[in-house]
Structure formats: structure tokens, C-alpha cells
Automatic annotation (TrEMBL):
The keyword Signal does not apply. Residues 8-45 form the Peripheral subunit-binding (PSBD) domain. GO terms for biological process: pyruvate decarboxylation to acetyl-CoA. Its cofactor is (R)-lipoate. Keywords: Acyltransferase, Transferase. It comes from marine metagenome. The keyword Nucleotidyltransferase does not apply. This is Peripheral subunit-binding (PSBD) domain-containing protein. Coiled coil: none annotated.
Amino acid sequence: MTEDKKIFTTPKVRRFARELGANVSLIKGTERKGRITEEDVKKFISNQLKEPKNIEEDSQPLDKIKNEYNHSDFGEVEIKEVPRVKRIAAPHLVNSWKNIPHVTHHDEADITEMEEFRSSLTDSFTGERKKITPLAFVIKALVSSLIKFPTFNSSIEDIDKGKMTIKKYYHIGIAVDTPHGLMVPKLRNANNKNISLISKELKEISEKCRNLKIDKKEFFGGSMTVTSLGGIGGSFFTPIINYPEVAILGIGRSSKKNVYYEDKYQTRIMLPLSLSYDHRIIDGAEAARFCNELKENLGKDF
């Protein structure tokens, strides 16, 4: 606070510096008593742009932009506590978004046959229809795709040393919506499980998260994460990669569309896919091939 009082400038210049992301405490004023002018701010910004920055300096937290007015200046407000899970997740999300160059590839998968098969499943003892979540089929197809494209099942914490870690396990992260906030536990060894077991474990894991009975270790050691909005709505979006993974698959709500299939227009069930990936290790062509493989896997091997 004492340093701020020694800065001589006008509110207009302070606002000008703030809009440009400049810290006025670092600017040397040229007017009487070191008063800072707009020209001083422009000169400071110009010099900053000319100076080479190393990665470590650039990764330092930026000064928060302060609001000129309080929210309460415009009407009644209520201050509430942010849920603990969201407070814990916030720095991880910021770290991922700031340090991973995200690219999102959007596509649609034809799941008509998959849905027909899912609807036909019945219990061999009771004859009643089995309720298997579509997410179980997505996970099964995703694992097959990861086996063919191992780069998507990697981590690159040591990329500056020219190293990448290829995982030989298939632990799929599942984004679970809970009253406490979003949690991402892992479904372990998904490659060794059939559709029914995957569906059963998905329910168990989700319940543990909602009841806060999940072990902390279950949030770590993933291959790739799946986040689904299909039960709520929406089509395409940009999911944030769950560091230190290098990709995340977003699933939207499926819908019936009139598409050209087998030499004629037909009504098919299409599933929106949003694949965010780390562009440092995965390029666009590889992401497109991965999605093509995923789409093919969603149409077979049930």
C-alpha cells in the first residue's frame, strides 16, 4: 500500500496502464516529482515488447486486473463460499489452460448400430432389458483407439529434455458432475473389462464421488479423460485437458440427422465429439486420424 501512495499519476493514466496490462509501479515518470504520463506508459510498453523474455519469466503470475467499481455499486449482491472441490480444481485448470497449447478437433460419430445393439441388450436370467450407459461403449472404443495411437496415452513433463512417457496401462478419467463440483476419478484397466463391467463400475465410481467416499489417489494416474454432457444437452465444446494427460474427449448429446449413407439419405443417430489435444506432441492430422479410428470403433466390436 505504501508503494502505491508514492506513485504520482492520474486515474486516467492508471486506467490506461491497466488496460494495456502494465504495472504502474514499474514505470518511471518523466514529469515533475516523477509523475507518470500516458507517454511514459506507451514508452514502457514499447520497451517491454522489445525485450526478449524467457519462458520462466513469462510464466510468472500476472497482476490481477482490478475492477473500477464494486459489484455492490450497481445493486444488491450476496457473497458465498466457493465449494471446496472447485477451489481445489481452480489452480489445476488455470495451469492446464496456461501451459498447454490446446487445439480442439470437432467431429460426429454415427452410433446408429451401437444404439440399436444397446437397446436390444437383455438380462439372460430375467429377460429384462439391460440399462447400459452409452458412455461405457465410448470408453471401450476409446481404449481401442489409444492402443493404436499410443501418443494419446502419454505425458510430456520432460519434453524440454526431449523425453515423453508412454503409458502401458489404460486408466480412463471420467468427469463426474456432483453437488460439490466436478470430480475426475479413474476407471482402472479399462482394456480388461467388458461393456457390462465398465457400466457397473461407472455407476459405483460416480456414487463414491457424490458421497465423497472416493480415495484421493483415484484422481491421479490417468491415460485420457472423457467428459460427457450428453445427459444434459449441447453439442460441441472445448474441454480443458486434465494435466499431465495430453488429450481429453468431450461427448455431446446425440441426435437424429438426415445424412448421406450407403448411396442415399437416411436418418442416422449422430454423436458430437470434441477432442482437445496438446499441440506440442499431437498434430492436427494425427488428431483427425485418432477421431476416425474412434468413430470406426464406436460402430463395431460391441
